[in-house]
Amino acid sequence: MISSNHIVAVLIVFLCIGCSEQPPKHSFQHTIEEDAQKPWTSETFEDTETDFTFAIISDLSGGEREGIYSEAVAKINLLDPTFVLSIGDLIEGGTKDTSQLKKEWDSFDARTSKLNMPFFHLGGNHDLTNPTMRKVWQNRFGPRYYHFVFNDILFLMLDSEDYTEERMIEIYEAREEAIKMINGEIEGNVEESTYSQMIESRVGAISPTQTEYFKTVLNQYPDVKWTFLLMHKPLWMREDEKGLGDLEKALADRNYSVFNGHFHSFSQRIRNGQTYTILGTTGGSQNPEDKMSFDHFTLVRMTFPPTVTHLKLDGIIDEQHLREEQ
Q1: Which candidate, 41, 300, 310, places its Cα nearest to that of 151?
Q2: In the prediction, which pLDDT does 45 show?
Q3: Which domain holds residue 58?
Q4: CATH code, domain with 209
Q5: What is the pLDDT of residues 102-148, one digit of tens each?
Q6: 3-class SS shares of the chain: helix, strand, coil, % to 5
Q7: Which of 19, 124, 146, 261 has the fewest CB atoms in 10 Å of its CB?
Q8: Does residue 18 lie in a domain region?
Q9: Please, which residues have CB within 8 angstroms of residue 61's CB and are 6 or more apart in sequence?
Q10: Average of per-residue pLDDT values in the chain
Q11: DSSP alpha helices (H): ranges in the chain?
Q12: What total of structural domains would you count in the chain?
């Protein structure tokens, strides 16, 4: 006769086997207060295998082409990453009209809400062009720069439009003048305009306050498995104190990867022994003569080193969509 103790022991074994087959719970840490606005859409992540995958979308603006971003959302859902990151220029922006800004952000957020996983906002020059847009961002998404740790991987989300309010207004007014030149409203060569000559128009700027914030974060997490830096403009191309130099020094003893956009043309290089990638577009304007200007999103699988795949939208085929077209 089988004893009751033996039956209990067998049940415990089966229960333990069942537990071992459960996917691991993710660890998500941040420092933003619970009741504050947050620049991400959700904190509920799908439980999955030990190595997770995340996606990155690139520029939508500078003349967004209708339907491209919605297509990207649908195809990202097909590949089912754990979450999605952005590198800025999510709306056309460039205005002080709060009703127009609300309309543009509502449109972007409505399309983004169709993602089956959390989405992390990051601003670019189109999103943070003037003090009014900064205030709209703060009210809607909270901080312009922030960090989080996911499964012992550190993510630094940088604001490359980090100017004093006075300098931001100067840049905005110069930009407005350049746009009038482009539209033929005033005479002038945009390539020789005040805006084009401003270093901020190409590589942005980071304030000492933001730099110190991220240096503190790096000191708090010295032993993470990998660090990712995302920004809109290539702060690493700026060589003075408003560039990425101080942070790169702080990163010298760790593995990291950098992603930015802004140029609407894909390129990649090795710098400081690490990979720096400039992404193309996910619906933004393109130069038809530039073969590296294409719509895509990036998929990163957290192996060591990370496995990075750049997927052109026209190379991802939804099987159900094909059946519907037959």
Answers
A1: 300
A2: 86
A3: 47-162+205-325
A4: 3.60.21.10
A5: 999 999 999 999 999 999 999 999 999 999 999 999 999 999 999 99
A6: 35, 20, 45
A7: 19
A8: no
A9: 89, 90, 91, 92, 93, 124, 126, 284, 285
A10: 91
A11: 4-20, 68-79, 98-112, 131-141, 165-182, 194-197, 200-203, 208-220, 245-250, 319-325
A12: 1
